[in-house]
Recover the amino acids of this structure.
């Protein structure tokens, strides 16, 4: 992304069931022009003045690379992210670092705002720590960490801890301490 410019918008939608249909329902933010794929002209590098928002499905590392390249050039994104586990976490993290991410409201899943200890636990897990390492970083016993993670999984309606961490990241890491 060009230095000194605001981060472009990233609209993250739930694309697991029917990503093309979900993409078609999302409009570009006001003042931005939507493009229906991630292809861009080679020149100029900085495309922020065009105020384009590219839309598409990110389902593998190659698509993620193309989408993130567009974001780095000042182009906004409407992304249907397909995939789970470390791939999903990695892409979400990259999107949050490089764009102003807004998650489309998911009617079936509430937005959860964990307390400071739970947010720190989720942050450690997002950084790649094991549950035991994350518990130690937050000064919790492993048993307490597992109980809190079970409560977070239930709150996020997630089937596993990775899914709960993914939802937390997609929601913008609520409850996390501000970065320095």
């Amino acid at each position: 992304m060009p230095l000194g410019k605001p981060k472009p918008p990233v609209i993250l939608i739930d694309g697991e069931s029917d990503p093309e249909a979900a993409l078609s329902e999302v409009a570009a933010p006001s003042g931005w022009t939507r493009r229906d794929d991630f292809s861009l002209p080679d020149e100029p590098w900085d495309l922020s003045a065009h105020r384009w928002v590219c839309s598409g499905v990110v389902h593998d590392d190659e698509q993620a690379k193309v989408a993130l390249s567009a974001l780095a050039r000042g182009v906004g994104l409407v992304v249907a992210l397909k995939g789970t586990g470390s791939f999903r976490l990695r892409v979400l993290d990259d999107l949050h670092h490089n764009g102003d991410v807004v998650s489309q409201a998911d009617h079936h899943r509430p937005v959860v705002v964990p307390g400071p200890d739970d947010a720190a636990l989720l942050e450690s897990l997002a950084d790649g720590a094991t549950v035991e390492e994350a518990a130690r970083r937050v000064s919790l016993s492993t048993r307490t960490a597992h109980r809190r993670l079970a409560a977070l999984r239930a709150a996020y309606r997630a089937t596993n801890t990775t899914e709960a961490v993914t939802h937390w990241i997609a929601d913008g890491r609520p409850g996390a301490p501000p970065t320095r």
